[in-house]
Amino acid sequence: MRRFKALIIVSCFLSIVSFARATDPSQISARMEVIRRERETLVAEQRRLETELEAVNRESQNLGTAVKSLDATKKKLATDIKITQSKISSTDLSIKSLENTIGDKEAQINVHQNAIKTALRSISGYDTRPLWIDMLASTNFTDAWRDRSQLEGFSGDLGNEVATLRDTKQELSLEKKKKEAARKQIASLNTELTGQKTVVEASQKAKEKLLAETKNKEAEYQKMIAENLARQAQFEKDIYDLESQLKIALDPSLIPEPRHGVFAWPLDSVFITQKFGKTVGAERLYSSGSHNGVDFRASQGTAVKAVLGGVVEGAGNTDEQRGCYSYGRWILIKHGNGLTSIYAHLSASLVSAGQEIEAGQLIGYSGGTPRTFGAGYSTGPHLHLGVFASQGVSVRQFTQSKGCQQVVVPIVDVKAYLDPLAYLPSL
After folding, report:
1. For all residues of the chain together, what is the average pLDDT?
2. Is residue 111 predicted with pLDDT exceeding 90?
3. Phi, psi at residue 7, to the nearest 5°?
4. Which of 5, 144, 223, 422 is deepest in the core (most CB within 10 A)?
5. 3-state secondary structure at position 269
6. Half-sphere exposure of 44 (CA within 13 A, CB side)
7. pLDDT per residue over 70-90, tens digit each?
8. Is the pLDDT of residue 280 over 50?
9. Residues 6+ apart with CB under 8 A from 17
């Protein structure tokens, strides 16, 4: 009878045990709710500033507009930073909540394991002794028989405890995976935050540089724009002459058939300012008479994402060589389907050569404001996206350029240029 009472005590212990937590869950939930409401306000402010910035960027191109755009960009980016910091705080609280849950599960597993061991030892004692011995040892045959009957029922309960232990271990594994995912998200958000701060600093320096170089005079600004256009034309001529000489035999079977949705959009908000191929603007701006990619409207510091997973084939900034005006800051990603994408005129890059990239991953921030570091020959903020047949592109030194002889850039056989819109989602 004493053994059975011990089993009953173990069973009761399993049902009433409680666990200490490092942080009060109600406090975590309350704090997360406060942060969520604050972020909603910030997002509304972000949308308002984006609308104002887009309106400024649609104004005629002059010095005043350029300065207004940089000022508006700085305000918008400051809000972006606050939103990212808010996301980091929320994710950090989520990790604390997960740690509480993990602690509970680990404690439950420990208690269940110990209780099961104790129960098994007690049951083993009964199982190794014949019923007639218990009958003779007991002063009451009825009590002995009842103990044996109740023991059989308790054995069934023990089976349930074993099943619960197994389920708890599975739940623990799931919670640990959630925690690991949250930690990765924290790392990603911190990278994003670093990039945003870099763009803010660059925007401030760009404004100071712009005013210094133009002496705050409209005529000087227009002269600067004209110089950028001339440099753009020269670079386009140099690279077109080189690429026209390439005689790479392309295997059509290695180029995917055009199909919408192969790629995702590189921006959250899509507005195309210049398409691929022979357009009116292309005939005026490019020696080949054809635009080799797609331009998207994007204010300075807009998040740029990979259109598809792949490996960074190269990344650089032609602005690092004085007098070289071309892509500016660029990223080239080779995808596993025979296509390669380039992102140009960036204000910041968050990736490096050889790095594996996931589809939709943040890789940098758009740029293009004249005289900002990484803008290249751009005359206004935007994102340039190009797509090539991978077999026809290589990253190498541009030795045949007058102003960019030491610069490393993607060189593409003219036959390898493809229309990005043929692979992006339908408009």
Report:
1. 80
2. no
3. -65, -40
4. 144
5. coil
6. 6
7. 888 888 889 999 999 999 999
8. no
9. 107, 108, 111
User: DSSP state, 41?
Assistant: H
Domains of the chain, by residue range, sit at 2-190, 249-422
The residue behind tokens 């508006």 is: 72
What value, to the nearest 5°, has the Cα angle with vertex 15 and ends 14 and 17?
70
pLDDT in tens, 196-228: 888 888 888 888 888 888 888 888 888 877 877
77: helix, strand or coil: helix
Question: Comparing C-alpha atoms, which of 130, 131, 153 is closest to residue 143?
Answer: 131
Q: Are strands 303-305 and 294-297 parallel, antiparallel or unpaired?
A: unpaired
CB within 8 Å of 249: residues ≥ 6 apart? none
Give the SS3 label for residue 410. Answer: strand
> Two tokens at 16?
């009433």
- In eight-state DSSP terms, residue 291 is B
Contact status, residue 31 vs residue 93, Cβ threshold 8 Å: yes
C-alpha 171 chain-centroid distance:
27
pLDDT band at 126; cut points 50, 70, 90: low
- Could you tell me which of 195, 223, 239 has the C-alpha nearest to residue 346? 195
Query: What confidence tens digit (pLDDT) does each residue in 308-354 have?
Result: 999 999 999 988 887 777 788 999 999 999 999 999 999 999 999 99
Domain 249-422 CATH (choose: 3.40.50.970, 2.70.70.10, 2.30.30.140, 3.40.1010.10): 2.70.70.10
What is the 8-class DSSP label of residue 275?
-
Burial class (CB in 10 A: 0-12, 13-18, 19+), 306: buried
